[in-house]
């Protein structure tokens, strides 16, 4: 959990920006102005002891030079002297953001990788949510690029599937190591492009590293059982084979980790991967793929084993409809996920769905409030409410309701709002302007449905997509807005009397992702884990709803889609199972003793 004690120290709201993606041809800049503010923000943002993605800045930093001056002076000459670099309205062209070059990013970036880089589709510019500055441009995949990439990925699979699993694991190990080397700079890009705070950006890359380690071990362990055959002279075994090509569509809010969960496991299972990230985080997709591509190419493995097709709904739909996509792993909203699931089902394909959540924390009268307050703060306010596992409903036993609300409001007041890359910041912007509108709309609906805003509820007065983390009380457990996943930091606080009713309320929403109770009652804990307890995929006790470890299977039930990723036996979803019976005798006994003569 990220420095919650620090969270409670003091509040310093300041600075900000917005985020969107615009479609344009590559010629011409993006927005003008803002260079100074972005520059000042970055300079302010990075106390050297805590954070230093551009490694070149350090030595002068230590001599007491200003970070801005140091980053300019230590730039490679070719960047500093290029007039367009000095003039660029794109962050990537500005000295302060020279560290983006460490990830191989340029003003214009190809968004298709299938062994070589290309792309002939629309150009998108991605924007930093915290300062509304354009970062760089990515040329996305056209449908022709998509077609070519699928063919290359299928060809690459033939090579990859022949490599023994432990050797595939060795490649994944190297990918993990390559990510380790870039962890700070890649985490910084996540912070810059998605808007989550720096430690969470780095944490996401760490999650990918962790799942690589996990997958390396798994590459020597996956396999099926030998089962006792009822027929003499027969062997009954399970053989697991890769499905082939795994399409991976990911959401904006975890632009690194979700791809990591999927690709590391899919790869050791012997699959090729084809990735489409969210258009608003295209640069992160490109940067991650560059790291992977180098490992593959250094090992003389076809790069198309890990293909990338940047794009929007057009490419996503093509993937969903495409029978060559042997498994389609989709992470995103329930609304889009349902369309995708139906398209895949139409062709009897396989899908793995990780969709929306509406997660609850239940606090009983015997709970340790020293755990409850920081847990709720992290789960509801962390990532500005933009995690699939964000706590959106807080059920409080009536005897402690007022006390917890008061304590929580005090904790909210101390959350430090700021630029996400500032190490002191705990709370950054929403990802897009549309998200701000959805936030305001949800607050309005909550009021109309009988709720009272006891904290927040407004847009923060600074340039960007910042909204106040918000607490609403007084709503009915089944008010329509309480049953809606609004991807913003709004917490609905609800009162309950009895265990039975609150377990039912936990389960009455359509989504079934994550859930937590806070109690010291052992019997209640086991009832919560049991058949009449939580119906979610993630069922916690005395910890927040968010912040899952990679070792367990991650996913949820009902409208969350039923998929499982990452640890435990999730690997099985990336493979097909054959039940094999081998007769090594000279007789032909039939099962169930049937005589057919
Ligand atoms: N359960 C999980 O593990 C998990 C993890 C992260 C996010 N989410 C969910 O994701 C949502 C937020 O992410 P988002 O706003 O990026 O979701 P989204 O559904 O808008 O987009 C997800 C992805 O789908 C693509 N897409 C859009 N239209 C498509 C179409 N017609 N066919 C195929 N692909 C299409 C997008 O370009 C993007 O890559 C929330 O609901 C959140 O709960 C779930």
UniProtKB/TrEMBL annotation:
<feature type="domain" description="Aldehyde dehydrogenase">
    <location>
        <begin position="124"/>
        <end position="577"/>
    </location>
</feature>
<keyword id="KW-0963">Cytoplasm</keyword>
<dbReference type="GO" id="GO:0042802">
    <property type="term" value="F:identical protein binding"/>
</dbReference>
<feature type="region of interest" description="Disordered">
    <location>
        <begin position="1"/>
        <end position="55"/>
    </location>
</feature>
<dbReference type="GO" id="GO:0005634">
    <property type="term" value="C:nucleus"/>
</dbReference>
<keyword id="KW-0809">Transit peptide</keyword>
<comment type="pathway">
    <text>Amine and polyamine biosynthesis; betaine biosynthesis via choline pathway; betaine from betaine aldehyde: step 1/1.</text>
</comment>
<dbReference type="GO" id="GO:0005829">
    <property type="term" value="C:cytosol"/>
</dbReference>
<feature type="compositionally biased region" description="Low complexity">
    <location>
        <begin position="37"/>
        <end position="46"/>
    </location>
</feature>
<keyword id="KW-0560">Oxidoreductase</keyword>
<dbReference type="InterPro" id="IPR044638">
    <property type="entry name" value="ALDH7A1-like"/>
</dbReference>
<dbReference type="InterPro" id="IPR016163">
    <property type="entry name" value="Ald_DH_C"/>
</dbReference>
<dbReference type="GO" id="GO:0006554">
    <property type="term" value="P:lysine catabolic process"/>
</dbReference>
<dbReference type="Pfam" id="PF00171">
    <property type="entry name" value="Aldedh"/>
</dbReference>
<dbReference type="InterPro" id="IPR029510">
    <property type="entry name" value="Ald_DH_CS_GLU"/>
</dbReference>
<dbReference type="GO" id="GO:0004043">
    <property type="term" value="F:L-aminoadipate-semialdehyde dehydrogenase [NAD(P)+] activity"/>
</dbReference>
<protein>
    <recommendedName>
        <fullName>Alpha-aminoadipic semialdehyde dehydrogenase</fullName>
        <ecNumber>1.2.1.3</ecNumber>
        <ecNumber>1.2.1.31</ecNumber>
        <ecNumber>1.2.1.8</ecNumber>
    </recommendedName>
</protein>
<comment type="function">
    <text>Multifunctional enzyme mediating important protective effects. Metabolizes betaine aldehyde to betaine, an important cellular osmolyte and methyl donor. Protects cells from oxidative stress by metabolizing a number of lipid peroxidation-derived aldehydes. Involved in lysine catabolism.</text>
</comment>
<keyword id="KW-0539">Nucleus</keyword>
<comment type="subunit">
    <text>Homotetramer.</text>
</comment>
<feature type="active site">
    <location>
        <position position="354"/>
    </location>
</feature>
<keyword id="KW-0520">NAD</keyword>
<dbReference type="InterPro" id="IPR015590">
    <property type="entry name" value="Aldehyde_DH_dom"/>
</dbReference>
<keyword id="KW-0007">Acetylation</keyword>
<dbReference type="GO" id="GO:0008802">
    <property type="term" value="F:betaine-aldehyde dehydrogenase (NAD+) activity"/>
</dbReference>
<keyword id="KW-0496">Mitochondrion</keyword>
<comment type="similarity">
    <text>Belongs to the aldehyde dehydrogenase family.</text>
</comment>
<dbReference type="InterPro" id="IPR016161">
    <property type="entry name" value="Ald_DH/histidinol_DH"/>
</dbReference>
<dbReference type="InterPro" id="IPR016162">
    <property type="entry name" value="Ald_DH_N"/>
</dbReference>
<dbReference type="GO" id="GO:0005739">
    <property type="term" value="C:mitochondrion"/>
</dbReference>
């Amino acid at each position: 959990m990220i420095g919650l004690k620090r969270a409670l120290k003091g509040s310093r709201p300041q600075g900000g920006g917005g985020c969107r993606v615009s479609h344009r041809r590559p010629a011409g800049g993006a927005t003008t102005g803002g260079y100074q503010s972005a520059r000042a923000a970055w300079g302010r943002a990075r106390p050297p002891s805590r954070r230093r993605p551009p490694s070149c800045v350090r030595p002068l930093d230590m001599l007491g030079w200003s970070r801005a001056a140091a980053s300019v002076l230590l730039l490679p000459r070719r960047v500093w002297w290029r007039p367009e670099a000095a003039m660029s309205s794109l962050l990537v062209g500005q000295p302060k953001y020279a560290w983006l070059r460490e990830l191989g990013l340029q003003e214009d970036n190809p968004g298709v990788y299938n062994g070589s880089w290309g792309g002939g589709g629309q150009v998108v510019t991605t924007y930093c949510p915290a300062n509304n500055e354009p970062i760089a441009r990515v040329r996305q995949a056209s449908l022709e690029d998509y077609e070519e990439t699928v063919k290359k990925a299928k060809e690459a699979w033939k090579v990859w599937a022949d490599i023994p699993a432990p050797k595939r694991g060795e490649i994944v190990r190297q990918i993990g190591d390559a990510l380790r080397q870039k962890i700070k700079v890649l985490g910084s890009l996540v912070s810059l492009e998605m808007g989550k705070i720096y430690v969470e950006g780095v944490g996401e890359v760490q999650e990918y590293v962790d799942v690589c380690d996990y997958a390396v071990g798994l590459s020597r362990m996956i396999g099926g059982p030998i089962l006792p055959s009822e027929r003499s002279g027969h062997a009954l075994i399970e053989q697991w084979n890769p499905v082939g090509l795994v399409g991976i569509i990911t959401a904006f809010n975890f632009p690194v980790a979700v791809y990591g969960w999927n690709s590391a496991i899919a790869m050791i299972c012997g699959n090729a991967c084809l990735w489409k990230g969210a258009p608003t985080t295209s640069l992160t997709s490109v940067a991650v793929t560059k790291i992977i591509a180098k490992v593959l190419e250094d090992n003389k493995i076809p790069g198309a084993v890990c293909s990338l097709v940047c794009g929007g709904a057009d490419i996503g739909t093509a993937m969903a409809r495409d029978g060559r996509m042997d498994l389609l792993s989709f992470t995103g909203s329930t609304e889009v996920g349902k369309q995708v699931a139906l398209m895949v089902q139409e062709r009897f394909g396989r899908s793995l769905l990780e969709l929306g959540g509406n997660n609850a924390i239940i606090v009983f009268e015997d709970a340790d409030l020293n755990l409850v307050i920081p847990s709720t703060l992290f789960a509801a306010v962390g990532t500005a409410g933009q995690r699939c596992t964000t706590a959106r409903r807080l059920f409080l036993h009536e005897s402690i309701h007022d006390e917890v609300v008061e304590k929580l409001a005090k904790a909210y007041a101390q959350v430090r709002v700021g630029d996400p890359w500032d190490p002191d910041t705990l709370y950054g912007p929403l990802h897009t302007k549309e998200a701000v509108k959805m936030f305001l709309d949800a607050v309005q609906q909550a009021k109309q449905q009988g709720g009272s805003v006891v904290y927040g509820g407004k847009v923060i007065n600074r340039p960007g997509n910042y909204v106040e983390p918000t607490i609403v009380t007084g709503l009915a457990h089944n008010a329509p807005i309480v049953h809606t996943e609004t991807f913003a930091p709004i917490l609905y606080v609800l009162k309950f009397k009895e265990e039975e009713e609150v377990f039912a309320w936990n389960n009455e929403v359509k989504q079934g992702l994550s859930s937590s109770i806070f109690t010291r009652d052992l019997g209640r804990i086991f009832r919560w884990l049991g058949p009449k307890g939580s119906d979610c995929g993630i069922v916690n006790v005395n910890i927040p709803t968010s912040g899952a470890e990679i070792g367990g299977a991650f996913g949820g039930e009902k409208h969350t889609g039923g998929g499982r990723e990452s640890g435990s036996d999730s690997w099985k979803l990336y493979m097909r199972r054959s039940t094999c019976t081998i007769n090594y005798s000279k007789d032909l006994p039939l099962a169930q003793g049937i005589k057919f003569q």
